[in-house]
Amino acid sequence: MTTEKYxxxxxxxxxxxxxxxxxxxxxxxxSLFSCQRSQHITDxxxxxxxxxxxxxxxxxxxxxxxxxxxxxxFFTLGLTSMEWGNIENSDGWRKGFTKKQRxxxxxxxxxxxxxxxxxxxxxxxxxxxxxxxELPGALILSAALHYIEEARKFSGGRxxxxxxxxxxxxxxxxxxxxxxxxxxxxxxxxxxxxxxxSILPLDDPR
Length: 206
Hints:
By secondary structure, the protein is α+β, with helices and mostly antiparallel strands.
């Protein structure tokens, strides 16, 4: 059974664009949000989402159930940069694209001190107790990329960067065309698993 849902920009709550009781209901759910797969996501939703939004460090979007505004999950978008040399020297970049495609993707690329600006999907989360059938990861990712495509109509931009567990990279991001370009330590305290840094070209390299 498909759950009817909609996406609410988090800033609509902070800017007072929705009914105060509805806003209070949603904010309470955020304060209790839990994602056992990632303490980092739990902490972000409960403690950091508001501060990041108010500082314009990121923009978050909430998936809500249409009938009662139950919070199902969310995604968070922002801007970041990465050293281009790390990308073009990575196995993922060399194996993921032909020489012709790599040349097309890097043509005219503006680098500031060797770094390239990118969009980033900082968080992509589903609440504990909400199954994949109700809110598939691919649906959250598709919505995030849609908002990025809308943003680049005004700002430009050529790549999206994500860091994630390898299991999630292989199951979700790699299937969507992201290629691994680096790794980094887990953001979850005490966790030794490396996270995959991957990028998605927004332009067709053919």
